[in-house]
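FAQ: What does the model actually see?

It sees only this:
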Amino acid sequence: MMDLKKNQKTKSSLDFNNLIRKHLSIQLSLDGFSFCIINKDEKQIEKLTHIDFEDHSATPDLLLKNVENVFKKDKALQKRYGSVNITHVNQLSTLVPKSLFDEARIRDYLKFSSKTYTNDYVVHDDLENHDMVNVYIPFVNVNNFFLERFGSFEYKHFSTVLVDKLLNTFKFSEHPHMFAHIGAHQFEIIVIAHDQLLFYNSFEYHTPEDFIYYVLFTAEQLSLNPETFELVLAGMITQEAELFKMAYRYIRKVSLLENRSEFKFPPNSKEETKRRHFTLLNQYS
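And it is asked to produce this:
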């Protein structure tokens, strides 16, 4: 999706190395910035980088300053790529069945779940194979910065990638799966059964107790038995983490999401790193 002006020339100060056969994926949130470079011909991930932003209560204006600083410091981001895509991580999104979606009333879908303003730029992604759309507010000021740098690019909400990938991967599962995608200060719960999305929501958390409360409350609302449903954890999680130990205390079947990427990783790449960047690594296919 690209609602901004396409094919605008990038600034002359950039390094215009010929990287037409390479792809750049970026994922950004108020508290961090990640990117990877993919060699399309060799299906090889050549670089995978994450930068934490110190101020976790940042505003979109501060986010832009942080992103500008990242671009100044990393020469890999100062090149021209054959294709670029961006995902925005925030809680300003909601999934809507395609049969109920009316683009003329797009702002209405967010007003019950997010605080919005009259000048907010509201867009949507199509989940083409799953009869739903994702309505959200992107970081417009950062998109404009990317437009100056790259000329054209595609962008989505990160939950579009997350839900679409999980539905495609687990579509033949007959029993319910609950997925929790863990971030530094928020996590998403996705429940899938019989090729259907049963539940999606995003929650803030500060302690393992916060985390397990939302997991068990969601299970109760969906009549899922902690003895029988499977909880699969992705994002910033390891088997040694307190969140994993807390989940295992209350739920019988707990596992970590396996990497099923079609791309080759650099030598000595850790499964923990691949799991943390699940949505970033699945932006491009």
